[in-house]
Amino acid sequence: MTALTADQIARVKATAPVLAEHGATITTHFYKRLFANHPELKHLFNQAHQQSGGQPQALARAVYAYAANIDNLGALTGAVAHITQKHASLNIRAEHYPIVGENLLAAISEVLGDAVDQPTLDAWAAAYGQLAGILIGAEQKLYDGAAWSGFRPFAVVRKEMESDEITSFYLKPSDGGKLRDFAPGQYVSVKRFVTEIGVVQPRQYSLSDAPNGQYLRISVKRERPIGLPAGHVSNGLHDGVEVGSIVEVSAPMGEFSLDRTKTTPVVLMSGGVGITPMVSMLASIVASGSARQVAFVHACRHGGVHAFKHWVNDIASKHPNVTRAVFYEAVRPEDRQGADFDFPGRMDWPQFVSQALLPDADYYICGPVAFMRGQMAALHAAGIHAERIHTEIFGAGMLE
Fold first, then answer.
1. Does 139 participate in catalysis according to the annotation?
2. 128 in catalytic set
3. Is-contact 185 281, C-beta < 8 A?
4. CA-to-CA distance for 190 and 211, rounded, in angstroms?
5. pTM to 2 decimals?
6. Is 167 annotated as a binding residue?
7. Could you report the per-residue pLDDT of 359-397, keeping only the tens digit for each?
8. Quick one: CATH architecture of 266-392?
9. 187 annotated as ligand-binding
10. Which is catalytic among the residues 66, 139, 162, 165?
11. Is residue 277 annotated as involved in ligand binding?
């Protein structure tokens, strides 16, 4: 991989303000161009995020960050790790990068026109080649260490409702082969053909049980967004996948995972369907026989959408090292008859701070973006160092 010259670095960095202003326009044009020229690549991209604008905006932010830090790539280490894990889960390969590069550079030229000269385009071509080399190398290491290559057929051996919205699918390899260990908190991609848009679509779902060598479990929320082109795959799984069905599943990936080498406390904080990786982490700690202190903190709308409540209650009652704090935003009359929640309203730190601010604890957060931002702000305000805060975000959103 050839290093960029000082002139190329200067030219790319100088375009950062332009990308801040026109980035979303460029990336939206890029995706339209890419899919027009290469419709066979639609299966690699979430088309709902394309229609909502989430994916073009996310790419625009990533391109801007690369331009702004072209002379300090170390600042992008975390972002590169996140991107490469997602790419490996989707089975994006080295041969896809030249196609993407050609269309991205053409989109920059076509949108900016005379505002960008040929030497600057050449600098961006070199910069893209550098970035592609970094990503390809990192992704190859992930592929080399993956439990299997590409997508593998799994049979649904059990289907179980966890709440009014979330259903679990227990998956076993249809080839009869064994399963390797994975890191609690990781996810897999699942492919389904979506009739409404006529293309296979991938979706990533956190694994929601401890590694056991026998099956994988994903717990899928039925998406019913108002006015958004989402929910095709989740609804297809809920309504069209039954025991005996075969689904295509990628190897587990993701840098958001429980550090099982530690014995210090863990605080697991989730909102809504963000509970799924936390259940995997808690199940793994319990299955190992560890006495590690765990605070399980969860927020949801009400008892009808509270997944895994009986399981978590049972774990907390049997294991003195596990405590629970549950918030219901809108308590229903029937919710008051049980003991499944602790606090009404949204998650409020002063109400459970004594349970959650544990010495030397690691904090894992997953849920809606606004929820995660709120919890991160509260942790920072409480003096928790950034290296002890771990987050996972679903979809194309961004925390910063």
1. yes
2. no
3. yes
4. 18
5. 0.92
6. no
7. 899 999 999 999 999 999 999 999 999 999 999 876 544
8. 3-Layer(aba) Sandwich (3.40)
9. yes
10. 139
11. yes
